[in-house]
């Protein structure tokens, strides 16, 4: 897994994931932290399986969306995030 | 039943336009005296309406093709494409925004675009229509039905969905210029910062900017350096605050905007901004005046008065 060199886009995705986990660590209660971590990790893992590696436009769109949500999450008033699936 | 009612209402509106155009000759509206951009716009609108109405007063069905840029992030595997819509322009309002509303109401509700005032003052509906960046609510439909009209989002911007783009960088650059009055002392009479009418005249052509981002997204210098170069809209507003007589931080503002080659001096005088501004403003001249103010402080006052 670590042998092949990561592309620039993969590094951006990983740094965004790291940013989310760091933001989670700064929240007051442990259950808030766990909730954020589970939501973020399921979202990232789902997208890594479903989204085609060559679909750059969609991956960049998700990265920009993720950065905006991370900026919102960093503020001390935000306690947790949740995700809803509509079929 | 509803369709019949619609036609009657539309024909009343068409009648009013016919009356006003006959009253004012060939489209000279006296209220628009002195506003060249508005006069040109009203002449274009009347011309396109003339081609639609019929001599007998009946409606001529005129179906025009509109090719609109579509991309849906909820369907990530489809690439962006131009979708064709055929709209009867004789039953539709005169501006491109009216066409978009009609398509969204009748044909495809998933078409996404920003809009608010429908009168060219909010700057929400800015998009690229037939190759030019304008606001859709002030652009009359080109009623030549043989050629399609192509509507795409503002160029070189990240697309969120269909015609909606990401303007956060643009707004952050506007914020970075500190677009508010900065003073060191409280006002002289304790209540208001007074300004003479001559000083207020210096702001004409600068304060009307609606921040639609048409000029900034038409500038090639901005396309190649969006993070660094503030763009013509931001620089126009920087000049607006520099030339405001009530502001006491003029030197600091000018210094901040001209200190390195990444702000004002990235401008290459391409002048796309002035050509495309829907309000008829001139960002290129404001940038030139700022460059002149930086290199020679006093003579610019004489040139400005002339």
TrEMBL record, chain A:
Its main location: mitochondrion. GO terms for cellular component: mitochondrial matrix. It comes from the Eukaryota. GO terms for biological process: mitochondrial respiratory chain complex II assembly. Keywords: Chaperone, Mitochondrion. Residues 11-72 form the Complex 1 LYR protein domain. It is found in: Mitochondrion matrix. InterPro entries: Complex1_LYR_dom (IPR008011), Complex1_LYR_SDHAF1_LYRM8 (IPR045295). Pfam families: Complex1_LYR (PF05347). Belongs to the complex I LYR family. SDHAF1 subfamily. This is (rape) hypothetical protein. The lineage of its organism: Eukaryota, Viridiplantae, Streptophyta, Embryophyta, Tracheophyta.
From TrEMBL, chain B:
Its cofactor is [3Fe-4S] cluster; [4Fe-4S] cluster; [2Fe-2S] cluster. It is an enzyme of class 1 (oxidoreductase). It is found in: Mitochondrion inner membrane. SUPFAM superfamilies: 2Fe-2S ferredoxin-like, alpha-helical ferredoxin. Pathway: Carbohydrate metabolism; tricarboxylic acid cycle; fumarate from succinate (eukaryal route): step 1/1. Signal peptide: none annotated. Its EC number is 1.3.5.1. Residues 66-157 form the 2Fe-2S ferredoxin-type domain. Belongs to the succinate dehydrogenase/fumarate reductase iron-sulfur protein family. This is Succinate dehydrogenase [ubiquinone] iron-sulfur subunit, mitochondrial.
